[in-house]
Design goal:
Strand content: 15-25%
Structural class: alpha+beta
Oligomer: single chain
Shape: globular
Strand order of the largest sheet: 9-10-11-13-12
Number of helices: 10
Low-confidence stretches: 273-277
Number of strands: 13
């Protein structure tokens, strides 16, 4: 949770859906896992895809393990996601206790076969704590002057195999004090840009619904094979600070030697309910401007810093 920017970043590896529910009991967002369980994939196959959303301070975030919803009573049946959601979609007072009471009805006659965990995160509390103890620091960090800079890198096929350009570039940018409050968002946006260029344009892979486990595994096996056999390819990266009368922007540009991809079609697909290409929707939502040109081989993103 980044209270300074008012955003929340969620990485979920094969966990049950996460619920964002306001104080009146309205379901604001249901967030499905888009990654494999942590530790299943090799390091180079790890998928850093996240959900980024604005923090609604009049809401709670609920996370749970599947040991809760998969409890199966001989008379009461399976506890289930639907029962849990019904219990959570009520006014805030007594909501958590209602779930605990319902679990109690299962527990006396049912041997515990799995861990049972329920977490309720009050999104208003961190904001209140920041106001009380960290407001002045937050203002100082947000308004630290950024030294003008321009960074350019050229990656060849071997660099794409051996290096981690996402962490490398994010780490360089995070060294600037004025960029530190934005480091998580910059990392997320750059990761989506780079992975789009590498996977869709350079390697020629299509999109995949990563909620489908086997499709996810097949996709990354194919990604790894194509990357290992890649011979002639390059990706040019550029990072630049832009100063305007309205404030400062970070410009990120990528240009690759691949076959390109239909960015407009991918963005339209990303707005659907599936998980394929969802990263493009995130780029569009949190950037000041996003442009693709040269048949998807060139991308330019502007992210507002102040």
């Amino acid at each position: 949770m980044d209270i300074y920017s008012g955003r929340m970043t969620i990485w979920s590896g094969a966990m049950p859906d996460i619920y964002l529910i306001d104080h009146q009991g309205q379901l604001l967002r249901q967030i499905s896992a888009r990654n494999m369980p942590l530790g299943v994939l090799a390091d180079e196959e790890f998928e850093p895809g996240v959900e980024v959303l604005e923090i609604p301070i009049d809401a709670h975030l609920y996370l749970h393990t599947d040991g809760l919803t998969e409890m199966n009573h001989p008379k009461l049946g399976e506890f289930g996601e639907e029962r849990l959601l019904q219990l959570l979609q009520r006014p805030l007072a007594g909501r958590f206790e209602a779930v605990v009471e319902a679990i109690g009805a299962y527990r006396p006659d049912l041997p515990q076969e799995d861990d049972i965990a329920l977490v309720a995160l009050d999104l208003q509390r961190p904001a209140e704590i920041l106001d009380q103890h960290g407001g002045e620091l937050a203002q100082e960090q947000r308004h630290e002057r950024i030294i003008p800079f321009q960074i350019q890198l050229e990656l060849e096929a071997e660099d794409m195999r051996r290096l981690d350009p996402i962490s490398l570039c994010s780490g360089i940018l995070a060294q600037q004090p004025g960029l530190r409050p934005h480091k998580d968002m910059i990392h997320t946006l750059f990761a989506e840009l780079y992975n789009n260029a590498l996977e869709h344009s350079v390697l020629g892979l299509g999109s995949v619904d990563k909620s489908e486990t086997q499709a996810f595994i097949d996709y990354y096996q194919q990604r790894q094979h194509k990357l290992q056999t890649l011979e002639q390819a390059h990706i040019s990266l550029s990072f630049r600070l832009i100063r305007e009368a309205e404030g400062e922007l970070l410009e990120i540009q990528l240009q690759d030697s691949g076959r390109g991809f239909d960015a407009a079609q991918a963005l339209e697909r990303s707005r659907s309910e599936g998980l394929a290409s969802r990263g493009l929707a995130l780029l569009s939502q949190f950037s000041e401007r996003l442009e693709y040109s040269n048949d998807g081989r060139q991308a330019r993103l502007l992210y507002r810093l102040s």
